[in-house]
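Record type: ASSEMBLY
Status: queued
Input:
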Amino acid sequence: MPCVNLQIIPLGPVIDIHIGVSAPRREALNLAGITPPDVVMCRLLIDTGASCTCLDPWVINKLGIAPSGFTTIHTPSTNADSNHQCSQYDVFLSIPHPGISRYFHAMPVIESNFSHQGIDGLLGRDVLASCVFIYNGELGFYTLSF
Amino acid sequence: MSALTKETETYKKLLPSLLINQGKFAVIYGDKLIGAYDSYEDALKIGYKECGINPFLVKKISAEENISYFSRDLNTSCLA
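Status: finished
Output:
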């Protein structure tokens, strides 16, 4: 099982990953004679408190994608009786590895502002569901196997 | 407001009849149900094949809306 061992920085356990348009959208763009946008490198905070992966608007805008779904979210400031609905976007995501990279060819993400926090988004439990994540606070590094 | 306003309304209107396919992913374009598919990726493939790069909705069919939880506040555009 490929793994990365990275230092925990003051922002937390962050990882640089590639984000692009989903594989089905890439195919549709090619059929329409439109060159798909290049993948972009994003710095995401691994967040076990996030049900799903989120990306900053600059990433969504760079990929030129429109919503393809919606989901209901609950955050600390959400009232118990009034969850919010927000848009979902379909993307391609890969965790780079010198040996075997891990690819998610089509997955839904939501959009939220993170750039003021020094990250481009959150890597949520939707991705962690197929990984092993070990947080070694004592030694100041984490391991992500996938 | 989302570009998927019409599709969202269609999903909510069709939901009672869609529940026989609970757990599958519905693809909706305008007021038309294209179909229900086993996986998110399959639904996307059909959506892009049928609609091209025009906006369409992919939604997991569920009697009760699935909620995504976050331990931090998000600054996102809310639809409702």
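Annotation: DSSP finds three helices and ten strands in chain A.
Annotation: Residues 2 and 69 of chain A are 32 Å apart (CA to CA).
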